[in-house]
Amino acid sequence: MAYDPNNIFAKIIREEAPCFKVYEDDMTLAFMDVMPQADGHTLVIPKFPAEDLLDLDPDYVAAQAMTVKKLAPAVKKAFDAPGIMIAQLNGSAAGQTVFHFHTHIIPRRSGLEMKLHAREMADFDMLKEHAERIKAALA
Ligand code: AMP
Q1: Does 61 fall in a domain?
Q2: Structure pTM?
Q3: b or e along 92-130 (b: 16 or more beta carbons within 10 Å of the residue's beta carbon)?
Q4: From ligand 1's centre to the CA of 110, what distance in Å?
């Protein structure tokens, strides 16, 4: 499948669609997942037109990993999470629903099941507050 430059994450990078941003640098962007599987569910994307890991330029693989490494402790701190799940899906058969490469950062705690994937839209005021919490933890 060819990369679709009008996918929602490409629009977010071009600022044609909104997001609750938590971090940005020259090569990556991080924002809240609007259908979080747990409070604090954050997405990191490269500013590179790749559907999945197989298409992603190696320099962006490295930049993406660095941003995940920077964000994961901030998400953990902001949500006082004992565990952090890092997930990345490649292809619809693997459950991928948005075809611009992205990494999920999801706070986890034992006994608390994750919500279903990409199902329920969260309250926007809550997502804004969660983004602020992560930004404060990054500072
Ligand atoms: P995946 O299924 O791994 O491709 O994950 C795509 C993720 O993007 C899901 O967790 C969705 O909830 C999330 N998502 C879809 N649209 C948006 C959006 N406009 N802003 C933020 N997150 C989104």
Answers
A1: yes
A2: 0.97
A3: eeeebebbbbbbbbbbbeeeeeebeeeeeebeeeebeeb
A4: 24
